[in-house]
Amino acid sequence: MKSFIKPFIVLCLIFCVVQVEAQKSKTPFFHPVDSFSKARFWGLTGTTAVGYTGVVTGLSKLWYANYPRSKFHLFNDLGEWKDMDKMGHLFTAYFQSKWAKQAYAWTGLSNKGSIWAGMTAGTLFQTTLEVLDGFSEEWGFSIGDVAFNTSGVLLMGGQEWLWDEQRIVLKLSSHRVKYPDALFNASMGNGMSSQKIRAAELYGTSLPEMFIKEYNGLTIWASVNIRSFIKKEKTWVPSWLNVAAGYGAENLFGGYNNSWEDSEGNIFVLDRDAYPRYRQYFLSFDIDFTRIKTKHRALQILFNLVNIIKIPAPALEYNSLGKFKFRPFYF
Asked: What is the pLDDT of residue 149?
């Protein structure tokens, strides 16, 4: 399974670096210095470079070392996992670029300079991981991943160039799926398995794994701020109110189909009619926490962090089976 856990690790690193560097200054996090600071710029760049090198080296030795290496090759995985991993790449590249842009704005770099720095950082971080994938026999250099990575970077940069703010923010939500634990026989072989066992093998069971690997419970959202598109100065619409469009998928127990082979060579196949694989499209409400006004730096940092999460709320679902569903409480 090829999830976006690796780029997500780097995403978390970038946010931590931003916060560490910000805490060294008496200037509030969202208020960059008036003029360019070489000390901040090179301190941030050096800290990020060292940290990122360490993460990439660690992934190369700990993650990729568990899989056979090969010559550099391309890999076409569009449509795999109903493109949930692609949405993960879009989300991660967007936030890597966004947080890197904020970090370089904090150093006093010009607005244009910080935008380019953020876009460059997001592209560099993601492309490095794709190159590592390119030398892995298990995967390869995915053109689809690069396309979605680039889209995430451009979504951040394009909004800054066009509006000088992020009116459309990518977010995620995830819930724990209750899988049937009834055992069934292998289609070929003498083994037995269950959906619960298969899901644990694919997605893990811990809370962090649920948020970054559980494709059947994960939803990626484009959260649009309503007020920012209203030209009138006086309106009843709160500045923090968003409308969100989400994408998810259901009944994914394999990359392209719901069949798999266990370590003993037993082959299992789920009934397509009983467990159809399908895409989900959601419409819901959300909150942009960064638009909640506060002068407290700690709250600003907290709001910037939690703004990657879509709040639980009622949602309308339409899926590729042609069915509508109303979810009174969806996360």
From this structure: 96
